[in-house]
Amino acid sequence: MFEAQFQTFEDPEGGVALTARLSAFREELLRRQLTGFVIPRADSQQNEYVAPSEERLAWLTGFTGSAGLAVVLIGEAAVFVDGRYTLQATRQVDTTAWAVESLIEPPPENWLTRHLKPGDRLGFDPWLHTSAAAERLAKACARAGAELVAVDGNPVDAIWTERPAPPLGPVKIHPAEFAGESERDKLARIAAEIARLDVDALVLSDSHAVAWTFNIRGADVAHTPLPLSYALVAKDGRATIFIDHRKLSNSVRDYLERTATVEDPDVLTERLATLASTGAAIGLDAATAADALSRLIAAHGGKPVRLTDPVALLKAVKNPAEIAGTRAAHRRDGAALARFLAWIDREAPGGALTEIDAVEALETFRRDTGALKDVSFPTIAGTGPNGAIVHYRVTRKSNRRIAPGDLLLIDSGAQYEDGTTDVTRTIAIGEPTAEMRDRFTRVLRGHIAIARAAFPDGTSGAQIDVLARQFLWQAGIDFEHGTGHGVGSYLSVHEGPARISKLGTTPLKRGMILSNEPGYYKTDAFGIRIENLELVVEKRIDGAEKPMNGFETLTLAPIDRRLINANRISKQELAWVNAYHSRVREEIRPLLDEATRVWLDAATAPLVPAD
Fold this sequence. Notes:
Elements: H1 16-31, E1 36-40, H2 56-61, E2 69-73, E3 77-81, H3 86-92, E4 99-102, H4 108-115, E5 121-124, H5 131-144, E6 147-150, H6 155-159, E7 172-173, H7 176-179, H8 183-197, E8 201-204, H9 207-214, E9 216-217, E10 230-234, E11 239-242, H10 250-256, E12 260-263, H11 268-276, E13 281-285, H12 291-299, E14 303-307, H13 310-316, H14 320-347, H15 355-367, E15 372-375, E16 380-383, E17 407-412, E18 414-416, E19 419-420, E20 423-428, H16 434-451, E21 455-456, H17 461-473, E22 484-486, E23 495-500, E24 513-516, E25 519-522, E26 526-529, E27 532-538, E28 548-553, H18 571-588, H19 594-603
C-alpha cells in the first residue's frame, strides 16, 4: 500500500473565511491609521519554506505558492506572483476581491505608484522585508505622495487568533563524514572573508548559512532540514549562535559551545545594539537580512554594511565528502525512481491511477530505501493540462486521473543525510502525439546542450542559459522559468548564489551543483520538463589554451525514449542519450529487483533513428 508521510493533499482554505479575514484586516489597518499594508510571502530570514506561523500571505489570500506578495488598500487589493504561479494564483484567490498582478515585470511598486494617493500611509513589517525591498517601497510611495510606515507588530498577527506557535524542531549534528569540514575550519574561512570585506562583524541572517557553518541540521520548516537561527561572527573573538535553547539537547549544546557562545534568539538585537554603539561596521546579507536589523544598527550608532553573504559562495562549492555523498544519494535515488517508473509503465495505461497515486507511490519507493529523511519539496505530479502549471501541487480537489494519451510530468526530490536530489521526468501514457514528441525533443536537445557545455572560468549561468532555449526559440516558443538553480548538501534544494538563468550573474565554480531543467508548457494541454542535477567539474579539452569547465550529470534515471524523435537530433546528441542511459543502467541495475531490471534494460536500450 502506497502512502505519503511527508506531503498532504488538502485544499487551501477559501470562500467566506478569507472574505471575513480581508474585512477584519482592513478594520485593523484603520485602527492603526494606515491606508494600506504590504504582506510578503516571507519570514524574517527570507526562507523559501517558512514555518506555519509565518504563512501570513496564504492565511489572508489563499495563495500557497513559494513566492508572492500582497498589497491591501482600503478600497482594493492585489496579489503579485511570478510567471510560475499565474495560473495557480487565479485558481486559489478570490478574484472578485483580489487582482492578480505581476511580481517581476512590471513590479508591484508600479502598481503602488498608480493606486496610492497623496497622504496615504502604507505600512510594512521591517522584519519581513530586506532593506533593498523597503527602499523600493519607499520610492514608490514618494512618487505617489504617500508615506511608508514601518510598523511595530504585524497587523496580520493581530487578527490571526489561531496562529500556530513558532517551531521547535530538535537540532542534530551533521556528521563529519558528510560535512567534510569542521566548524572551526569553516569559521576560519569566514574570518578571512570578514577581513577581506573590511567590516568588524558579520551577521549570518540565513539559517542555511548557520547550519552549514556549525554543521547542524534541524526540523523547523518543511522539506529542508533547517534549524531557524542567527549567528554573529566578529572580526576578533568568539562567534555567537542565536537559537532557541529548547531545540538543543545537552550533547548538541556542548557541541556548539566548543566553537561558539550559544544565546536565545531574542538576545540578537541586544548584542547588535551593544556592538553598534561602538561605531562598528556590521555586515548584513543583502538577500536575507531584515530591514529591521539595518534600522537597529543605525539607530545605535553603528554602520550597517549591505553585502553578499560570503558564506553563500563557500557553501555552494561542495567539498570532496559532500560530492561523494551526493553521488551515493543519486545512485540510491535512481534505484527508487526506476522502481517508480517501471510501476507507472505497468499500471498507468489501465487508466485507474491518479496524480495522488503517483505522488504516494514515488515517496513510498524512496522511503523503502531506508534512508529518506524527507522529500526536498512537495512532488509536482501533473497529468494532461495540470502538467502545464509549472509549480502545480495536487490536492484532493484538483486530483486528475492519468489517462492514456496524457503526458505525466513528475518533478520530485529527496533529502538524504548524504545528499539532496531533484529530478523531473515527463512520461508518455500510451501513444504520444507528433506535437508532444516534437516539443519533448526540442526540450531534450536544450537539456543536452547544457549537459555537454564547455565553458572557461568566470562564466556565469546567464551566459549559458540560451543553450537550453535555442531549439525552442527556433519554433517560436520558450519557458517562463530559469534553466537551473543551485542545490545544497542535505540543505535547501534551491540554493544560491549560482543559477542558470537570464539573471544568473555568479560565476560557475567547480564543486557547485546545479539543476538543468528546460521545459515547455502548453496551457490547458500538457507540460514537459527534463531535469537532472549537474556537478561543475574540470573539462579536459585537447589543445585548450585556458582551464575549462563542464558538467558531470549526477541524476540517474531513464529519459522516456518514446518521446524522443531520433531523426530530429544530431549524432552527438544521440550519442549522449545512449551513453547516459548506459551509465544509468550500469550504476543502478545492481540495486534493483529482477523485474525492475528487465524494465530498465528496455527503458535504456540504445536509441536508433528510423530508416
